[in-house]
Amino acid sequence: MSPAAGERAAAHGEGGGVEVERVFIGAGCNRVVSNVSWGACGLVAFGAQNAVALFSPLRGEIVTTLPGHKAAVNCTLWLPTKKDVLQGVRGRETHYLLSGSADGAIMVWKIGSGKGEWAHALHLPVMHKKGVTCFAGRMVSDTASIFASTSSDGIVVIWEMTVEPTTGGSCQVSCLHSLNVGSKPMVSLSLAVLPEQGNHLILAMGGLDHKIHIYCGDKSGKFIKACELKGHSDWIRSLDFSLPVMMSSEKHNLFLVSSSQDRTIRIWKMTSGSVSSRSTMQLVNGNIEMTSYIEGPLFVAGNTSYQVSLESLLVGHEDWVYSVEWQPPTLLSGDETHQPMSILSASMDKMMMIWRPEKNTGLWINSVTVGELSHSALGFYGGHWQPDGKSILAHGYGGAFHMWRDVGLDSENWKPQIVPSGHFAPVSDLTWARSGQYLLSTTRIFAPWRNQVCPGDTVYWREIARPQIHGHDINCVAFIQGSGNHRFVSGADEKVSRVFEAPLSFLKTLQQATLLKPDISEDYDNVQVLGANMSALGLSQKPIYTHGMKDSPSSISNDGPESIETIPDAVPTVFTEPPVEDQLAWNTLWPESHKLYGHGNELFSICCDYEGKLVASSCKVLVLNQPQVAEIWLWEVGTWKAVGRLQSHNLTVTQMEFSRDNAFLLSVSRDRHLSIFSIKKTEEGVEHRLVTKHEAHKRIIWACSWNPFGYEFATGSRDKTVKIWCVKDASSVKLLATLPQFRDSVTALAWMGRDQCF
Question: Transmembrane segments in this chain: where (predicted)?
Answer without folding.
Answer: none
